[in-house]
Specification:
It contains 6 helices and 3 strands, in the order ααβαββααα. By secondary structure, it is mainly alpha-helical. The protein has a 3-stranded antiparallel beta sheet.
Length: 108
């Protein structure tokens, strides 16, 4: 689970299997990985597409991370504007190390 690239490679190599799992295996895997099942229909009936469910989970995590990052940057800018430190805003935009120091300084 800690090897993201390995997980991605395993999903790609076994996409057919994980895209057409039987309902029971899909349920077990979804509980183990704490992700929702995504059910689809094929000629034999209901199947679970775990690849799509995992991809959606990854996308949701990425979107949440972007939102959190935006909030942090916006809060930092707000603080610096309140303190009339426009020069520090400019420096933080171009210097990520400095930006991280400001996050720490202001407890963001």
């Amino acid at each position: 689970m800690k090897d993201k690239e390995g997980m991605k490679a395993a999903l790609e190599e076994n996409k057919e299997y994980y895209s057409h799992m039987d309902k029971k295996r899909g349920w077990v895997l979804s509980k183990f990985l704490n992700i929702p099942e995504l059910k689809t229909e094929d000629q034999e009936g209901e199947v679970v597409d775990m690849c799509t469910a995992i991809e959606e989970m990854i996308r949701d995590g990425r979107d949440e991370g972007i939102t959190q990052g935006e909030r942090k940057v916006n809060r930092l800018i707000q603080i610096l504007l309140e303190e009339s430190k426009q020069d520090e805003i400019t420096r933080a935009v171009y210097d990520q190390h400095y930006q991280k120091k400001l996050f720490e300084k202001y407890g963001i």
